[in-house]
Amino acid sequence: MSLLSVDELAVTFGGRGMREVNAVSGVSFSVDEGQVVGLVGESGCGKSVTSLALMGLLPNKGVRVGGRAMFRTGRGETVDLLTLGRSALRDLRGTQLAMIFQDPLSSLNPVVPIGVQVTEILTRHRGLRGQAARKEAAHLLDRVGIPDPTRRLKEYPHQLSGGMRQRALIAMAVACAPRLLIADEPTTALDVTIQAQILELLKELVDDQGTALLMITHDLGVVAGMCDTVNVLYAGKVVEAAGRRPLFAAPAHPYAHGLLGSIPRLDAPRGERLNPIRGSINDTIAWQDGCAFAPRCDFYVDECLRGTPQLAALPRGADGHDVRCVNPVMTGPPETTTLLDKPPTSSEEAAQDSASDGDGKGPEAGAGTDEDTGTDSGTEASA
Ligand SMILES: Nc1ncnc2c1ncn2[C@@H]1O[C@H](COP(=O)(O)OP(=O)(O)O)[C@@H](O)[C@H]1O
Ligand code: SF4
Ligand SMILES: [Mg+2]
């Protein structure tokens, strides 16, 4: 069984007399131990609401949450994160589950020195106090690349740069070696050179600790550089789920295909126009009336408005390549795609290593990861 298995997660906002908003309406995916799983989509598609629901951080009032999110704890129990009581969830957060948010400044308490904020976690979850807690806090800051950690511990969040604040938050998130780390656009607020350093750091930490990472992003470059499997979200539903390589080699959902086609490339002929997806996420129809992407879709056929398309295995696709579309794109990647040139993720490297062990069995019989499909995908189709 997967470490986390999310099945038909639905989140609806709207209290009495308010218009209802179906922020997330049937999101299913899974995360295996040590895996890096991407949740990607444009702004407003439900990425943050999904992560907040998993962490139990949605407000109590005016929100309805449905579905299941089964999480296997370090004690061998399986719990549903969506129905677990507040105090049980609080116990899981930190030791088992941790989250890094987009904006490090608003996630840190501005009037409390960094050191106090880090040592509080060490005291609460690891029972460390006094000198031992301060020593471990300095060690953690050092580990995430913050120079002169003993001095930095005495400083307030506003005295640190944006990149250092995000590093401090990562130190707090990994302080108890959680089994699952959820990173919600952790680099969006940072400039590009710092972004690359933070992603590298996250990768190192998940490799060292065996932590699984749910990487939430709107940036396909981040997905291409890090994720083993990818779930593409559109208007609150997963519309395509696949291993990283099959997704980038042959995106099948017109939205995923369009996302890849709209990435600028340096070697394009001068004056060549970008190919953006037309319209915006507001040009949508309700899923119960058909495919929400229909108003923007170049592959539209009449069948698209005959009920909600279901997430189903792609005909002739790699194992675990699922798509929610009645007329998927079967022509391979758009010409503008460049991201496949990225180096393989660690699990793909493992697959390549096992393929070259000379045991003659090939990657399928090795690490359980297929170099062509690039995944041992635990991604589940939802129906
Ligand atoms: N507190 C809220 N009340 C009403 N609607 C909300 C609330 N929070 C988020 N939403 C709506 O839920 C949808 C998904 O939001 P969000 O998960 O923040 O998107 P993303 O993180 O993908 O940019 C959006 O349409 C947003 O307007
Ligand atoms: S179901 Fe139809 S409208 Fe929706 S993405 Fe597929 S082809 Fe386009
Ligand atoms: Mg968000």
Draw up the topology in text.
Blueprint (H helix, E strand, L loop, with lengths): L3 E10 L7 E11 L4 E5 L6 H9 L7 E10 L5 E3 L5 H10 L1 E4 L3 H4 L6 H13 L3 H14 L5 H5 L8 H13 L5 E5 L7 H18 L2 E6 L2 H7 L2 E6 L2 E7 H6 L4 H8 L50 E2 L8 E2 L22 H10 L28
Parallel strand pairs: 3-8, 3-9, 6-7, 7-8
Antiparallel strand pairs: 1-2, 1-4, 4-5, 9-10, 10-12, 11-12
The chain binds adenosine-5'-diphosphate, iron/sulfur cluster and magnesium ion.
What do you see in this structure?
The chain is α/β, with parallel strands linked by helices and 383 residues long. The chain has a domain at 97-177. It is 31% helix and 19% strand. It contains twelve helices and twelve strands. The chain has helices at residues 47-55, 86-95, 104-107, 114-126, 130-143, 149-153, 162-174, 192-209, 220-226, 244-249, 254-261, 346-355; strands at 4-13, 21-31, 36-40, 63-72, 78-80, 97-100, 180-184, 212-217, 229-234, 237-243, 312-313, 322-323. It has an eight-stranded mixed β-sheet, with helices on both faces. A four-stranded antiparallel β-sheet has the order 2-1-4-5, with helices on one face. The longest helix has 18 residues, at 192-209. The chain is globular. The two termini are 19 Å apart. Bound molecules: adenosine-5'-diphosphate, iron/sulfur cluster (SF4) and magnesium ion (MG). This is ABC transporter ATP-binding protein. One of its GO terms (molecular function) is ATP binding. Keywords: ATP-binding, Cell membrane, Membrane, Nucleotide-binding, Transport.
